[in-house]
UniProtKB/TrEMBL annotation:
Cofactor: NAD(+)
Organism taxonomic ancestry: Eukaryota, Viridiplantae, Streptophyta, Embryophyta, Tracheophyta
Domain NAD(P)-binding: 9-332
GO biological process, one term: galactose metabolic process
UniProt name for this protein: UDP-glucose 4-epimerase
Organism: Adiantum capillus-veneris (Maidenhair fern)
Documented EC number(s): 5.1.3.-
Enzyme class, first EC level, given as a word: isomerase
NCBIfam families: galE, PRK10675.1
Functional pathway: Carbohydrate metabolism; galactose metabolism
Keywords: Carbohydrate metabolism, Isomerase, NAD
Length: 359
């Protein structure tokens, strides 16, 4: 069976990482069914994926479904036989998860339980799950290897930790299941076309979208959280990874599952290199030609000084490695920002009302 015969369910495929991955899946010849409740995304993103996919757009289908609605989800599983699921759907804002823990546990856990149950019922036993480096908590050393002890510092992180454990239990109970848990480090950048990218609602929590919004004049300045970390320049160090590299990691994971991988494996998706806040700012200024005004303030509660991935295992076992560096990440982030300073929505039409549709 070639990838052209394979049908993939992509939950959360209208979102930032899901939309980029859906495009690569289509280009690799897969049939892609996106389900998304559009809670943190818009249908326009899927329309743009369809446009970029060209001749493959006929293989793209979209259903506006909330994973918590098991009846609706069941209808999709009854209609289509999926060869594998890539599960992105979930809420992801750390601060919001602290304020609304029940919402996060309900959305991320109930949604996943429904999905796993229906997969079981319909004999779909191949799964790639979006986990996060957040499950390393505040790592005691770097680089983070996949066998580091796991912990969570906030409710969002706990949902990732719990879901990882639930999936491990499901796989243990039925060895037919083959699962890959992918722990993303810090996804940034956008598709080279500038047509799709990250479009956070409200004030961004993460560094790169914040810098982008300062560059296009939506925000006045970047607050640098902490200048006294034991790092090269005192600011926090993270492992930023181009979203196209990240998307490609999912293709590598599926390839592994379709060539007979068994059990439940976990891989970091990062570059293995750390970059400081000030280095990101300098790279973005070079890419955009814009000055990013800075305000130096205290550390953000719960932040680690330095987090980056060990990529040894993923390189060895999935034959995947990130290709892009910080300059390319900033170039593509800026290209997306310049073309879409207000994201997918015009500033005066931030609301949208879309019903389910197919392409
Ligand atoms: P995103 O918010 O852009 O995409 C998530 C999508 O899931 C959104 O389109 C949202 O509408 C949808 N969704 C949420 N709850 C749903 C539900 N109950 N039913 C149906 N759809 C639902 O986020 P992203 O950055 O693309 O992240 C994708 C996944 O990767 C998430 O699980 C996230 O936790 C994880 N992750 C993201 C990062 C990051 O920094 N972006 C880092 C590590 C892990
Ligand atoms: N930072 C600033 N100013 C800002 C935003 C961030 O200085 O306005 C700094 C942070 O202190 C940190 C770095 O920029 O040093 C990166 O911060 P992000 O919030 O972009 O990323 P984090 O690594 O702190 O956290 C993100 C997600 C987590 C996830 C983690 C790894 O928010 O949920 O990436 O995937 F676990």
């Amino acid at each position: 069976m070639s990838s052209t015969d394979k049908v993939i369910l992509v939950t959360g495929g209208a979102g930032y990482i899901g939309s980029h991955t859906a495009l690569l899946l289509l280009e690799a010849g897969y049939k892609v069914y996106i389900i998304d409740n559009l809670d943190n995304s818009v249908e326009e993103a899927i329309e743009r994926v369809a446009k970029l996919a060209g001749k493959y757009r006929k293989n793209l289908f979209f259903y506006k479904v909330d994973l918590r609605n098991k009846d609706q989800l069941e209808k999709i599983f009854s209609m289509v036989r999926f060869d594998a699921v890539v599960h992105f759907a979930g809420l992801k804002a750390v601060g919001e998860s602290v304020a609304k823990p029940l919402l996060y546990h309900e959305n991320n856990l109930i949604g996943t339980l429904n999905l796993l149950d229906l997969m079981n019922e319909h004999g779909c036993t191949k799964l790639v799950f979006s986990s996060s480096a957040t499950v390393y908590g505040q790592p005691k050393s770097v680089p983070c290897t996949e066998d580091f002890p796991l912990s969570a510092t906030n409710p969002y992180g706990r949902t990732k930790l719990f879901i990882e454990e639930i999936i491990r239990d499901v796989q243990k109970a039925d060895p037919e299941w083959s699962v890959i848990l992918l722990r993303y480090f810090n996804p940034v950048g956008a598709h080279q076309s500038g047509l799709i990218g990250e479009d956070p609602r409200g004030i961004p929590n993460n560094l790169m979208p914040f810098v982008q919004q300062v560059a296009v004049g939506r925000l006045a300045e970047l607050s640098v959280f902490g200048t006294d970390y034991p790092t090269r320049d005192g600011t926090g160090v993270r492992d930023y990874i181009h979203v196209m590299d990240l998307a490609d990691g999912h293709i590598a994971a599926l390839r592994k599952l379709f060539t007979g991988a068994k059990g439940c494996s976990v891989y970091n998706l990062g570059t293995g290199r750390g970059t400081s806040v000030l280095e990101i700012v300098a790279a973005f200024e070079r890419a955009s030609g814009k000055k990013i005004p800075l305000k130096f303030i205290g550390r953000r509660a719960g932040d680690s000084s330095e987090v980056y991935a060990s990529t040894e295992k993923v390189e060895r076992e999935l034959h995947w490695r990130a290709r892009y560096g910080i300059d390319e990440m900033c170039r593509d982030q800026w290209n997306w920002a310049r073309e879409n300073p207000w994201g997918y929505r015009a500033p005066d039409s931030m609301q949208q009302s879309v019903e389910s549709s197919r392409f």
